[in-house]
Specification:
There is one protein chain. By secondary structure, this protein is mainly α. It has a single domain, classed as Arp2/3 complex 21 kDa subunit ARPC3 (Orthogonal Bundle). It contains six helices and no strands. The radius of gyration is 15 Å and the shape is globular.
Length: 169
Amino acid sequence: MKTTLHGAFLLAFSIFQATLIDCIEIFSVKPNLFLIYVIIVCTFCGKSEGAVLGAFFGLVLDLLVGRLWGLNAILMMLLGFFTAYFCERVLRDNNILVVLLMVLAETVLYEIVYGFIYYLTLDGGNFFAILLRIIIPEGFYNMIVTIPVYFIVRRMGKVLYSDKGETIG
């Protein structure tokens, strides 16, 4: 059943990211729904599920908008693994504030690594200007978009898994 839930979110986010995301663009900054979902789910799941989910969502993101094929898959796989690892080892309480702070920090880290590799390989422009005008605002924009996505994912997890003793949130 988890696979069905993740597949439904993947399909919905793929359609939204490919078509309607430009409608909510603010100052050339768009939220990354794939990244938000991976971070939210990985705060509640194990390391292996986090890595597989991150790799799969990253691969689909590469197919949709990837300029360097495989980079999103690798980065999201690592992000999913380390988010789940951090939440298993360090955090015991996964509330909305923790998730929002993780989304901000991990978005900035993810985009810095992605931007740095892109800058080194394809000369994407002035890296520090990109950091100030796109990466940091995207982190805050992702935080805002995280709020409704978090509650939807949490509600869906409770509804789907309440009879089996498992939950997403």
